[in-house]
Write a structure and sequence with these properties.
The protein is an all-alpha fold and 569 residues long. The protein has one domain: Growth Hormone, Chain: A. Helices cover 74% and strands 2% of the residues. It contains 20 helices and two strands. It has a two-stranded antiparallel ribbon. The protein is globular and about 85 Å long. The chain starts with 16 loop residues before the first helix and ends with a helix.
Amino acid sequence: MANTPDTSVEIAPSGSAAEEANDATASDSLLVHKEVSRRTLSYHERPGVCWAVLAMASVAYFGKYFAISDLYIVETLFEGELFISPSRLSIILAISYAASIFGKVTAGVLSDARGGKFVFVLAGLGYVVTSILFGLLVYTNPTPVAYPRDPKHPHQTVLAAPGWQFALFLIVWAYNGYFALGLCWVSVVALCTNWVPTAHYGTLMGLVSMAPQLGDVIARSVLSSIIIVFPWRTIFFWAAGFALCLMLPVVFFVKNAPGEEETAIQKTKTKEEREPFRQRAIVLLKHPNLWLLALLSGCLYSVRTLFLLYSPSLLVHSFCANKGNRQLVPHNCLTSHVAAATAGRASALFTLLGCVSTLVIGRLRDWLPKRHRASVLLLPLFVLLVCLGLLWNASNPMWKHSNGGTVSFGVAVTSLAVAGLMLFGPYKMIGAVFAPEIGGKRLKGTACSIMGISDNTAAMVLLLVKGWIGGNWHLMFSILAIITCVAIVCALCLWANDISSSRDPHAHLRAITPSSDLYHRVPTENESTQTDEETGEESVAQDAGMADYRRISESRRAIFRKISQELDV
């Protein structure tokens, strides 16, 4: 029908063509969230524009990984030449995730209030500046201080960076975590979901969710090549330059929403201010699957973060444990540029194969019925558990083949690649698809922030644990396996909840929160008519009477039946 605002939904005939047109027109006047129809219509009329926006947002997001992967690649050089102990390095890495918790909270509120583009530009400028500042700090060469290795034996000392330099490293890298790890991804999700119709969330947001993996692969490959040609300390300035250039297309060519929808979104938010944010947030917090998703997301993110940050270090030690490689780099292999570059390029396989996982699981999410969508999380997690078991066995210091607890280079690279293939897809679907669905249009940024707070808290704790146990990878793999088991239990509970709710075919309509995209309340006969404060026009009830409302209700029930059939609930 030409007058129907959302061409993706057909309303079943309920009478003559004239009555259908009247119903559609009256129904359109009741739609508070008109931006949904414009978003869907814009996608069907000009899909190329939507794809271009998603592509530019994804490429801009690559810059974040230049701003954080620079330190990960030069971990061993950073420790060796600046006298940073492994425990101090773990604190530097963990403080960025602690700061990102505040960034996620800020990003959720600002994205819902000001739009995703505003937050993304703010984040980009932040991590570019902090990368430059960190590079300047790396070039300071203060005299290391001798600290007692053990208070009981003060004559046994170890050299370490002075306290003021370590404190500055902490402060700058914390701000880097606030902008890059805190603000960035939430803003990208908020921006892209303004352009993607809900029916295509799984496929299109699955493609967007490949941006972190591709960005990490590109950043590690490019920066690993740079440290072979240029001094390793310049890597932070190179990273800042790449990050700035990659974000420019979004700054100049991308709107927060398609066409007039950007204005419509702000008008909608003004109307929604009648309902306090606190009241809407309480309804969101009572969602049955929210906390299961938060725990599941935190488990997966902590494992992913541990591998992402420490895979270069693990691979450097595995590379140098091989006698043949030690002959190629006879002088201090652990702090050589060759070992760091080799490990940096090899660690890119972890995120490269994660792209395949994200794409496949996103497609399965759209293909499977809603009651079985959580099942796509289970198989990868079981394979990940098996992979961690193999790494645990290979790192057992009691076995002769383990090189004293160090995993061989071939086993480490292969296992990391399989882990990335099994890990990234489930995690990205939680943050890019499941969380925005729970939050709806009005609170999707807040829902993503809750996932982010859980993620970064879990990652921070695990990084501190890694710094405490040091290089004991055998124990570390045991801890990762336990965390994976918790994630499997959460995924099973989530699947059981979906199956249970699907037994009532209309439960998902009655349980929809005020933040949902599907529900718009129609006044009953006993309720008084209100006046639109923004336009000064009287409501449809006063113009058309209750008979029109009954016809509109029939049209809405037809829409809900159509949606139920598409979701196969």
